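Example S7 (structure tokens).
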């Protein structure tokens, strides 16, 4: 459903020319936080260049599986059973995102869930950049006790009516984002924008179909984290040092990843491990190579790579290098 809203005009102030021309403030509720979890509701508030609300949109989505933590989001199997599939709303959802920067609280999570749903639907979300309001609040130095949405809302006097309801969470975030954006513009703050790359190769695991819950839980629901830790086997080869441009990778080299990749991160890491490389979760002075498609981003790994002089290559170049990894010294 769509509801056009009337908002007051933005004050006539000097506005940074490099700022985006429009934003899509997004919130999605999901069956859980893992890679194979699904979206069950989504909301989008479209904003103009100065953060004024133009309209909003909300939909339920049938995840074709157990709805997960109903005690959090309140969406039961009965409610979702007659909802459209994601593939049914993908085009309308895309029209709300098209040409705008995706804004979300912990934006990497929302974007990853959206990217996976579009991959399943064999489509591509028209999103090229995202902005995380947690990162923006840090850039602005807001005196928040923590990085919860409720704390950001309270700071700007925004009243939250239905926490964990996609439409109300998106409204709250839109109302808190407007003064954040204006504060950034007034202070000449560089917005923490990150590239969004659609998934072209990914893996999924079958999940139980949508079913009924007994009480507040369901046998098919697995409480997990977004990227559950995986115990990888220790790399059996010593680190031969840094990667040198024009030369092959060598077994034992420590490789770190940063930012979005077209091939799902876990698949890339698996391939690196299978080739005899050491997949590092952080970047240090002994890291051999950083793989990133956004070398100008301000992520901690990119910043450390600059400080340490760590070589950097993009995903495509890394894929080529993986084809011919040199054996470790005997």
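Recovered sequence:
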């Amino acid at each position: 459903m769509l509801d056009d809203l009337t908002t007051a005009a933005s004050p006539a102030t000097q506005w940074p020319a490099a700022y985006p021309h429009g934003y899509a403030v997004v919130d999605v509720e999901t069956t859980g936080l893992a890679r194979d979890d699904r979206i069950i509701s989504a909301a989008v508030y479209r904003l103009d260049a100065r953060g004024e609300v133009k309209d909003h949109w909300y939909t339920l989505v049938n995840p074709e599986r157990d709805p997960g933590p109903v005690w959090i989001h309140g969406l039961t199997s009965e409610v979702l059973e007659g909802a459209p599939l994601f593939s049914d709303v993908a085009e309308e959802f895309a029209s709300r995102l098209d040409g705008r920067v995706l804004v979300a609280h912990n934006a990497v999570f929302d974007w990853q869930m959206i990217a996976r749903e579009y991959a399943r639907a064999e489509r591509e979300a028209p999103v090229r950049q995202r902005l995380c309001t947690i990162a923006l609040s840090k850039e602005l130095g807001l005196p928040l006790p923590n990085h919860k949405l409720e704390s950001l809302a309270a700071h700007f006097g925004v009243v939250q009516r239905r926490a964990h309801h996609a439409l109300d969470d998106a409204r709250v975030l839109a109302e808190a984002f407007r003064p954040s954006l204006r504060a950034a513009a007034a202070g000449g703050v560089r917005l923490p924008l990150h590239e969004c790359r659609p998934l072209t190769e990914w893996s999924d695991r079958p999940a139980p179909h949508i079913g009924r819950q007994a009480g507040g839980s369901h046998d098919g629901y697995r409480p997990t984290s977004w990227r559950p830790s995986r115990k990888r086997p220790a790399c059996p080869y010593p680190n031969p040092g840094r990667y040198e441009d024009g030369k092959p990778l060598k077994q034992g080299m420590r490789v770190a990843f940063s930012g979005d990749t077209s091939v799902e991160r876990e698949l890339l890491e698996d391939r690196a491990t299978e080739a005899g490389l050491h997949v590092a979760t952080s970047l240090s002075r002994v890291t051999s190579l950083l793989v990133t498609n956004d070398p100008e981003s301000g992520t901690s790994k990119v910043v450390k790579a600059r400080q340490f002089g760590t070589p950097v290559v993009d995903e495509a170049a890394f894929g080529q290098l993986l084809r011919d990894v040199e054996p470790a010294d005997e």
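Notes on this example. Confidence is low (pLDDT under 50) at residues 1-10, 211-229.
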